[in-house]
Design a protein that fits this description.
By secondary structure, the protein is of the alpha/beta class. The chain contains 16 helices and 23 strands. The strands form six sheets. Strands 15-16-17-14-13-19-20 form a seven-stranded mixed sheet, with helices on both faces. It has a six-stranded mixed sheet with strand order 10-9-8-11-12-22, with helices on both faces.
């Protein structure tokens, strides 16, 4: 049994309150570790350490020196790949095949991507004509924003945390990270790597706890935090936005989604089935960009439903290291109850359960875990709560459509606007439909394909701001203009 400590100013600490909480395995319900909660004193110490580090050796590093440091962090994660992998699996329960190909390698790669981005980042220069004919030179200067509060989610703990920490450090900021209380392990382990590669004390800090009256609220309300970046529920994002309004701090929010897949009759059926299968069921449906609404053109509707049913029923639920496992548990018993409440609601609202809809029959060793069946529904109206509200589980509703105009309207008729996938072999249609969907990212004949140089974020209630490539640099740095009269 482990103690999971806060990481403040380069050192691991239990904190002064003595308050702890249990880290529970979603696989079998057993206790993994005891986590030490950070309250006001620990949060204040972490923010002050981060503030002080801005004036220390970190603040004096050149861009090239920071780039070397970021690459060393990535190499440090990869050198301890197996440790990070086991920690992520313990926390999330996701299959080893998924975590070893997505979570850990991409979590490490985020540091290298933003090392390359900052090394090649340019700012604008303008010549200005003046009445005396001599002119003036204007050029942009990029400087760190300061102390960044990073509040990261539980579904892709390492990957989504480093997606924020990588560019923040690349721009010369310092960070205080509050990982989800459900998944503290890999973020805490990263502190060891930071020390091993020589990152100065105070640059990277980790505090553990919850939202209200705990680490999350104290961090977002702290007056010396200069910007806040968050991935998680829209409701929590609203609270963070209110906290950030005091002092007019910058925010970047990636929040909820009720993403749609659009499958036209001319789609390559094999590609569409494979893509929608992944987008609906990967990571047990716990992906912000995942698909919970599927619109299929009527001529292929019956075939699509049958083939997706066969695909869902072929998924193997089981322990992460078990051969062939490709679907793990939900993150917690609390989330399991939420998802099952929607499974029940779907039936009450009149859904036809194509497959699933309950709890799988697994071995006694796994019976204490947060397991649910992959589930497909048809037959609901568009105003059904199951069609409108984010569930965040391995489930989707499939609805037929008859025209391009109809499906665009159906897709956009939602308060969220994070992502969509469009399946068609008609290139003209793809170019015509994709820009009309009110989302941050629209995939055509693919899903979860990410070029990290491109803007990423949500529309409507799915978030505020864009990150990725130069767009991350815009958020994590302050641009000033220098005007020199010649």
């Amino acid at each position: 049994m482990k103690d999971i400590l806060n990481f403040i100013n380069g050192e691991y600490t239990k904190g002064t309150s003595g308050r702890t909480f249990d880290n529970i395995s979603p696989i079998d319900g057993r206790k993994i570790a005891t986590v030490h909660e950070a309250l006001k004193p620990e949060v204040d110490a972490a923010v002050k350490a981060a503030k002080a580090a801005l004036d220390g050796p970190w603040g004096k590093m050149s861009v090239n020196e920071r780039v070397e440091m970021l690459n060393a962090i990535a190499d440090g994660i990869n050198a301890r790949f197996d440790e990070f992998l086991e920690a992520e699996i313990l926390d999330t329960g996701k299959p080893k095949s998924l975590a070893s190909h997505i979570d850990i390698p991409r979590g490490a790669a985020n540091f290298k991507v933003f090392a390359d981005t900052i090394k090649n980042a340019a700012t604008e220069t303008f010549m200005l004509d003046t009445p005396d004919g001599a002119g003036a030179l204007n050029y942009g200067v990029r400087r760190p924003k300061g102390v960044i509060a990073v509040i990261s989610p539980w579904n892709l703990p390492l990957l989504l945390m480093t997606w924020k920490v990588g560019p923040a450090l690349a721009c010369g900021n310092t960070v205080v990270v509050k990982p989800s209380e459900e998944t503290p392990l890999t973020t805490t382990l990263l502190g060891e790597v930071m020390n091993e590669v020589g990152v100065p004390k105070g640059v990277f800090n980790v505090i553990h706890g919850f939202g209200p009256d705990s680490a999350g609220a104290y961090l977002t309300q702290h007056p010396e935090v200069d910007a806040i970046t968050f991935t998680g529920e829209t409701r929590t994002g609203e609270h963070i936005m209110q906290a950030a309004s005091v002092g007019l701090r910058d925010i970047s929010l990636e929040c909820g989604g009720k993403n749609a897949a659009i499958v036209f009759a001319d789609a390559d059926m094999d590609k569409a089935i494979e893509g929608v299968m992944r987008s609906a069921f990967a990571n047990c449906g716990q992906v912000c960009l995942g698909t919970e609404r599927v619109y299929v053109e009527r001529p292929i509707f019956e075939e699509f439903v049958q083939r997706l049913k066969e695909g869902a029923e072929s998924l193997k639920l089981g322990a992460p290291h078990e051969a062939g496992t490709n679907l793990g548990p939900l993150i917690s018993q609390e989330h399991k109850e939420k998802v099952l409440s929607y499974y029940k609601l779907a039936v009450e609202e009149g859904a036809t359960v194509v497959t699933g809809g309950g709890v799988p029959d697994l071995s006694s060793e796994l019976s204490g875990g947060a397991w649910v069946q992959p589930t497909i529904w048809t037959g609901l109206t568009e105003d059904a709560r199951v069609v409108k509200e984010e569930i965040f589980g391995p489930c989707c509703h499939i609805q037929p459509f008859d025209s391009e105009e109809e499906v665009i309207k159906l897709t956009n008729d939602n308060v969220y606007g994070l992502a969509t996938s469009i399946w068609t072999e008609n290139l003209t249609r793809a170019h015509r439909v994709a820009p009309k969907i009110e989302v941050g990212i629209a995939w055509v004949n693919s899903w979860f394909l990410r070029d990290l140089r491109t803007p990423f974020g949500g529309a409507k209630q799915s978030g505020i701001g864009r990150e990725g490539g130069e767009y991350s640099l815009e958020f994590y740095s302050e641009l000033s203009n220098v005007c020199i009269k010649l």
